[in-house]
Design goal:
Keywords: DNA-binding, Phosphoprotein, Transcription, Transcription regulation. The protein is α/β, with parallel strands linked by helices and 219 residues long. The protein folds into two domains: 3-137, Rossmann fold; 146-217, Winged helix-like DNA-binding domain superfamily/Winged helix DNA-binding domain (Arc Repressor Mutant, subunit A, Orthogonal Bundle). It is built from ten helices and six strands. The protein has a six-stranded parallel sheet, with helices on both faces. Strand 4 (78-83), helix 4 and strand 5 form a beta-alpha-beta unit. Helix 2 packs parallel to helix 3 (63-73), helix 4 crosses helix 6 (131-138) and helix 8 crosses helix 9 (185-199). The longest helix has 15 residues, at 185-199. It is elongated. Residues 138-146 have low confidence and may be disordered.
């Protein structure tokens, strides 16, 4: 079964280039091309793609508003942002719409392909350069954000804690993680607290960002 993709970008050269390259992948099918956010929303409704590859700066309706409408109306459709904006003022609002990931257009083609495949499986995708930008924006009380710890500290985590950490990248609640791993919800809560303590992080968002870097480095 192929991954059905809807591409949304107002730059024709970029759109056609991405469409051509992704169309060469044996497990991808380009089902539509939208030239603005409004078209993306309408085509997501009519075509029901698996993934919408969404630019942000588009006419009529921008990518953030389009992403919000798509994820609200069609939760089964995953939105993966692909843009040139690397600042937190764009990254955080885009992810808050429910988008499953945020990639920069400077990404290597092969990395984009793998990001799409991983997003299709439900895994959060973040371009390697933007994690600390997100942490800065999400830092509590506007204080200076803490840098993500070195991935070497993951050695302190138990096998079960690593399994819980991986589930955090999917945005799952404790209850959902418990159902996935077939353990008690209270057990998951204990593991999450332990993970935050061992990694010296303050919340689940930071833990999820660390996990994305950790599991990407292991690929």
């Amino acid at each position: 079964m192929k991954i059905r993709l809807l591409l949304a970008d107002d730059h024709q050269i970029v759109l056609k280039g991405i469409s051509f390259f992704l169309g060469l992948q044996p497990d991808f099918e380009i089902v539509g091309e939208a030239h603005n956010g409004q078209e993306a929303v309408e085509m997501a409704t009519s075509l029901k793609p698996d993934i919408v590859l969404m630019d942000l700066n588009m006419p009529v309706m921008d990518g953030i508003e389009a992403s919000k409408l798509i994820t609200e109306r069609h939760p089964e459709v995953k939105v993966l942002v692909l843009t040139s904006f690397s600042d937190s003022s764009h990254i955080v609002p885009a992810l808050q719409t429910g988008a499953i990931g945020y990639m920069l257009k400077e990404v290597e083609p092969d990395q984009l392909v793998e990001a799409i495949r991983s997003a299709y499986k439900g895994n959060v995708q973040l371009h390697p350069e933007i994690s600390n930008a997100i942490l800065s924006q999400l830092s509590p009380n506007g204080s200076e954000a803490k840098k993500l710890p070195d991935i070497e500290v993951a050695k302190a985590l138990t096998r079960r804690e690593l399994e819980v950490l991986e589930q955090l990248t999917k945005g799952l609640s404790n209850k959902e993680i418990a159902q996935t791993l077939v353990v008690a919800e209270k057990t998951v809560k204990t593991h999450v607290s332990s993970i935050l303590s061992k990694l010296n992080l303050s919340d689940r968002t930071q833990a999820a960002l660390f996990a994305v870097q950790l599991f990407q480095s292991a690929e």
